[in-house]
């Protein structure tokens, strides 16, 4: 096979990426039995180059190759026919470059979809449609949900996003200097994960080596972000079951975590903490003790509230066997992160891609699951406890590097003609940033993949054969990102 083998956050020479036919790529991918993490185009004069990036999670390796479409070639045979996980990647590539994946089973817009969107239709006695959004009550972002129902039973859900045209990836190309403030603003509930993925990509391209102290503090913040959002989501799930005590307790408990982040960085969501070159704020012994005391209290409250909920018949009846996505479906759709793990797909880039700090902690992956709302609820609980364990161990390691600098001055020039893939396991799943530079070190392509990009179709599958009134509960159990899709 004609592929370059690399690793997470490891720079390669873009000229070393092979150029082979799209038929060869398709044949290779079918044989590799790996997972797609990148399927991105780049304009090269009149041609379009397609990069395909596959992950071998078992050994922590990434495989990269490419093909070129000259101006007169406007189609290829779709990968999705035999590998459904490519379905949205191919739709996005077609939308951006007009090169059609022939015989794609669901070739619909990803973002440019407001004019005459071709919704799936059903006909028959008592079949009716329920439309929700794009304008919602409260403060959530725009998205349209079209249910095909027979009575109260949902036969199909189609999700239409793309209402926000923000041009985020283009903004990175226009940035004259490092732009951490943009990186942490792409997805507001994943500030640390996004800023960390961006910073690691830029540090690798600029050959900037950050201190062990900064690396550890970043990971402490990442686990605090994970714990805080999971706690909040458990409260949201409780609220959608009308279990108001759980909603209130989890809501208060989440605040304890994010208020501690505020004390560390000046922002409850960690804005301003990470910069290319390291971190801007320290965690001294006094703050470390405060974090541990907070986590001990949080863990007791989460333990107690979770156990009560899981013994409450009304909660169990709403969560068990509701919104089921089985293991086979999750694998075939290319699910990632928490949504994948809750269906028993063992993916976690913290441990799969050889991060030395996570590997050194001897932390076990927490869960084998059944794919329903209860599994997604219980997985959050397990991951909160796991994150608390990780933070405590990292705080202990931090003491060994107390004399190191928080931040180093990054090199301004990026490596010429290079490609790097930066993957960070955010609380939803893998956040993937891919950067490609040109002959002068300028960024020619910056591609972002949010875990929700993989997982929105998981929600559509989860709702099938459930009551339409179960949709809010299913939706909260995934808590996917609108802005992570609408880049």
Protein model, in words:
The chain is an alpha+beta fold and 487 residues long. The chain folds into two domains: 4-102, NADH:ubiquinone oxidoreductase Nqo5 subunit (Beta Polymerase, domain 2); 171-453, Cytochrome-c3 Hydrogenase, chain B, CATH 1.10.645.10. Helices cover 41% and strands 18% of the residues. It contains 16 helices and 15 strands. The strands form five sheets. Strands 1-5-4-3 form a four-stranded antiparallel β-sheet, with helices on one face. A hairpin with a 2-residue loop joins strand 3 (35-44) and strand 4 (47-56). Helix 6 (212-240) packs antiparallel against helix 14 and helix 8 (285-309) packs antiparallel against helix 14. It is globular, with a radius of gyration of 22 Å. The chain starts with a strand and ends in a 9-residue tail after the last helix. The model has no long low-confidence stretch (mean pLDDT 95).
